[in-house]
Fold this protein.
Amino acid sequence: MTAPVLSIGQQALLAALETVRDPELDEPITSLGFVTSCTVSADGDATVRLRLPTYFCAPNFAFLMVADAYDAVSALPGVRRTSVVLEDHFASDAINGGVAARAGFVRSFDGEAVEELDQLRADFLRKAVMAGTDQVCRPLLAAGTDPAALLAMTLGELPPSRALARLRERRGALGLPAGDGAPLLVDPVTGAVISPDAVPVHLRKAQITRVGIEANTGICRGMLRHRYDTPGQGETEEDQ
Amino acid sequence: MYESNGEKYFIVDAHMHYWNAAPDNWVPGAEQYAEGWIKCFHAYQGLGPPSTHWSLEHFEKYSEDDLMKDVFEDGYVDVAIFQPTYLKEWYKEGFNTTERNALMGEKHPGKFVYNTRFDPRDGDAGLEELRRNVERFGSIGCKLYTAEWNNGSRGYKLSDPAAYRFLEAAQNLGIKNVHVHKGPTIWPLDKDAFDVSDIDHCATDFPDLNFIIEHVGLPRIEDFCFMATQEPNVYAGLAVAIGGLMYARPRFFARVIGELLFWVGEDKMLFGSDYAIWEPKWQVEGFAAWESPGDVELSDYPKLTTTAKKKILGLNAANLYGIKVPDEYQLPAEAGTPGAQEVLGEPVAGA
């Protein structure tokens, strides 16, 4: 498969969309194949079409992705007007209309929601922190590091990796310690260091959280492939 | 029954359906939801081996003969447990009701268990319907779909007072097993609809009911597993775990099974084909033959032994439903490997 030729404007759009993640799967919507198309006119009219693995994907997460895509694209220099459209979803109208009107989730789903989605997003960032903890700890454990020794380690002592950068970014977004001197094993809610006797269970929880997210991602990719036979913009063969 | 390598397996399919999702059953004005639902199910089937895929038309409406052949003749199943899903806002006669299941099942005595359902939002009329169904169909189990749309509401939590009223009534009527299936909507919509903490409350408050969490809590398997270690009456329904991962994503399947064996344990895992999403034949054959790839990444998981497979494929569900298992398929007493709850000696602290 050869990558389609993209204009400079489309490349900028895709780069912006790469910063938008599925909050449940903690992956960019581009590599997940959720971007059907993205174009920008000479006048700066940006149009993004998004798609999801099923007609009934959870509306709260769908709303976050559409709203985040709108924010990322409309912040680009040279973009004058932004339109983000979620296709083939039971709540397409409420989501597309709500995001376009900058109405927020509660107003977009009048009577069906009590709060905006900040808490939901934070809950899933915590899951991403747990999964990321497994990602950075697993190679250390495989190399023979004693689980108890992980407790004394700081983020700055770990070898640089994409997984580590990602973990620090997620922890930072939650206001958890993320600097070089920050402890490796912290409670994802309080930021407190894990107590020594809780380390085995903490690592087990980190592991299953990662397994859960990865299994969900696998199922979502399979469902999307069944639903649409064309790759998404910015989706590579490796992603599929 | 299934026999392989000299081992005999008694097969209980603890989660299957007999639905009509063809356009003749779509509610006018709600066609898009009826169509969206069945297409979503059909996409799940796409995660199984290509040779087992059906056309959408066949998938929407299959016959009694198809079911008997796929499940019993070809699929090795000894007893199948019907799990109804009503969805009457989208399907005129319901997607898959207790009555539809029983009308078919009564032609094949001894083959089926009829679970029923309730919806706490149906009030007194719902309680009456539950009582009638239990009496008429002899149900000792029920299936709850918390994301069902009902008269403007898009779902409920099992910890709602109305749900408790129904759980109490169900228990008094003799219901033993409550299968819970979470879906993408709930009230309020800003909360995570797949969250399983409401079941945690129910399991504590109704210790004499068994709660079988369908699809092993996916997409919240981690929350489900933490809960299952703390609640002795919580079980894992494997529908979707086997059908959706064993063929399509074998490495994730190895890890998911490993996690379940660790946290939940082989005594509390139940096979369900989710027919007609997936046929049982390839699932039973594949699961009985399945061996963990055995690399370092998977080495700290408990092993899926032949004993564990026999329990998961039928003996555990037979136990919950009082299904008689011939002696030749039984295991010696106390065979097996315990899960985390017994190993750790005390409940694992919550997340």
